[in-house]
Amino acid sequence: MVTPWYPGGGxxxxxxxxxxxxxxxxxxxxxxxxxxxxxxxxxxxxxSVGQIGAICKALKAGxxxxxxxxxxIQRPDIKTLKLDARGMIMVPKALAxxxxxxxxxxxxxxxxxxTQGFKVVGANEVLESLTPDAAAGFNSQSVPEHQHDVxxxxxxxxxxxxxxxGQGAVVADGLVLAVEAQEGTNQMLERxxxxxxxxxxxxxxxxxxxxxxxxxxxxxxxxxxTMGVETIERASAAGLAGIALQEGAALIVNRDAVEAALxxxxxxxxxxxxxxx
Length: 277
Prior knowledge:
The protein is about 35% helix and about 20% strand. The protein has 9 helices and 12 strands. A hairpin with a 2-residue loop joins strand 6 (about 170) and strand 7 (about 175-180).
């Protein structure tokens, strides 16, 4: 089986997936305008996000029978997309789904690749080590002091997930400072950093928690909550005390570097149990 990854968006995750599949000679599909890493050692193909037919054709020509979605992208503006015939056919369905939320839209994309005969596999299936278990927690002795914020931030993140709005929320001293929508986690944390110090923590007196939870309706083969060093740095700049992820339902990219960053900023990582169904 040759396993490519798609979409080829930004961040370190696509490279980790490609390296994990190196023995299978993966085809790396780079999405124009979103890729911020180079892959000189792998076979690559470049397409617009709207060239669904051309992407599928390239994958089949490369002998690929499975697809792994990896890397972050922003929701594209369909009016400015470069669409091929297959992409045009998908537009009405994508527009209808997009009004419901990102998860609904991604399900349409996944369904299209499955219709074309590809098996869609999750990044957590390719690299199980990315998925946090209970032992992945860090600096756990600091968690009890902030437990109330951990619980509330997780609850808020799950609630906005039920509405297919976003995956993240920030709570400090019981006050909801921010919820994630279309801007993504990084820009949400920038908003928190811009709040007055009276309602948030500082690097000298940390308080507050970022929670990233999967949506209850989440298509877990794609778009799982992801945390890397950049997440830590931005949470630190916002004065937060720690981050909470759900056991078995997130991705930690470059775990050693993440732990080093948590240690440097004296922050904790809490791994919480799944919500009771």
